[in-house]
Amino acid sequence: MRLMFDRRLVYHFDFVLMLLMLAIVSFGTVSVYSADYDPASSRGAIFAARQAMWATFGAVGALVMVSFDYRKLERYAYLAYAGGLALLLAVPVIGSTTNGSKRWLDFGVFSLQPSEMMKLALIIVLARYFHRTMRPEGLRLRDLAVPVLLSVPPIGLILAQPDLGTAGVFCFVVASMVVLAGPSPKTWAILGGAALAVLPALPYLVSHLKPYQLKRIETFLNPELDPLGAGYHVIQSKIAIGSGGFYGKGFLHGTQNQLHFLPEQHTDFIFSVFSEEWGFVGAIVLISLYLALMMRGLVVVGRAKERFGALLAFGVLSNVLWQAVINLGMTTGMLPVVGITLPFFSYGGSSLVTLMAGLGLVINVNMRRFSKDRIPNF
Fold it and tell me: What DSSP line would sit under 109-148, residue for residue?
């Protein structure tokens, strides 16, 4: 029996999207090496080697994600959601604590950050729900009850870790998918009215923030209030970016980084390391790569064959977009520091593998936009 291979799958494989992702990952791996470079030790090489290893796993994950019809994920959406939620529930029980936050599950050989897996699981389950809850007049307010109920448990568990930045990304991703799903004009009016009604309660909500969270807001408004404490990160980051000038100081020649003035230089503030070494030109090139990746991804969303694929691809892209916006905003002092890494770029295994696998799903949607095979509903 001869196996039939559909050549259209290869023809519609988005090599441009894959190459854009790999370009960002490559720049990130080089920057990870530079961020922890020490002539007296091999620390930088070790971190870069690990990042390259995770990038390889991520590339494999992306290829796995394009190897099957993405529409089959509808069958297992709630199973994936339950699995992600179970991992999050395990964090407070057996998770390891780093820098005052309990976010990881330590398996000895590697550590896993369940919140990264949960992002993808929530995107899949929301894509399924909005795909099956389609109304010509738009979504009613009651139609948003299920997405809220699905989103509250993981967001609440992540806030308890505490991880305000990741919880914020979850909120933005859910909101983005709601916008694409299309609420009715009446629903928009109700949501807008509710948002206006909440405004007077903001002082009360701010007063109940944890001290370190309140300090971050204060130093965001004026970092010089605590230049050696809460404002230190932003001040040093802005100095690093500004000192890069137009062309940068050159690879491994960033003084803020090499003299260890820059905190969290291989994770949250790696953009500062990159900008100091490659300057304004390098920063524009990197941001252009992100913009090109987003625009290419939105083309996939626009020509997706059906609603589930469009929602799935858009959810993955919105995760990349909001994570990048928040990270770039906090490293340049335009947003409060909330501990968000730069997607595809910062050091980290769970995030990198999940993001690359997610982009594999976007490519999958593009590959199968011609398919007429029906996937039975369950």
Answer: S-EE-HHHHHHHHHHHHHHHHHHHS--TT-B-GGGGHHHH
Q: Which residues of 161-178 are buried (b: 16+ CB within 10 A; e: fewer)?
A: bbbbbbbbbbebbbebbb
348 near 55, Cβ under 8 Å? Answer: no
As a whole number of Å, the end-to-end CA separation of the chain is: 31
pLDDT, residue 53, reads 94
Which alpha helices (DSSP H) does the chain contain, by range? Answer: 7-11, 15-35, 43-65, 77-94, 114-132, 145-159, 164-181, 185-198, 202-207, 211-221, 232-243, 255-258, 270-302, 307-331, 349-367
Is the pTM higher than 0.85? The answer reads: yes
pLDDT at 335: 87
pLDDT value at residue 270: 92
**Nearest in space to 48 (alpha carbons), one of 63, 62, 27:** 27
Q: Given this model, what pLDDT does residue 200 score?
A: 80
Alpha-carbon span 236 to 211, nearest angstrom: 22
pLDDT, block means (10 residues), the chain with 378 residues: 58 89 95 83 80 94 92 93 93 77 76 90 96 87 93 92 88 94 90 83 70 70 68 84 89 79 83 92 96 96 91 96 94 86 92 95 89 50
Long-range contact pairs involving 3-11 (C-beta distance under 8 Å, separation at least 24): 8/367, 8/370, 9/367, 9/368
Amino acid sitting at position 163? D
What is the predicted pLDDT for the residue at 377?
47
Token couple for 53: 């290893």
Q: Judge if the upstream peptide bond of residue 154 is cis by omega within 30 degrees of 0.
A: no
Q: Which residues pair with 73 in a beta bridge?
A: none
Q: Are 153 and 85 in contact, with CB atoms under 8 Å apart?
A: yes
String of DSSP letters for 195-255 = HHHHGGGHHHHHHTS-HHHHHHHHHHH-GGGSTTTTTHHHHHHHHHHHHTTTT-S-TT--H
Burial 125-160 (b: 16+ CB within 10 A, else e): bbbbbbbeeeeeeebeeebbeebeebbeebbebbee
Number of other residues whose CB lies within 10 A of the CB of residue 339: 20
Amino acid letter for position 5: F
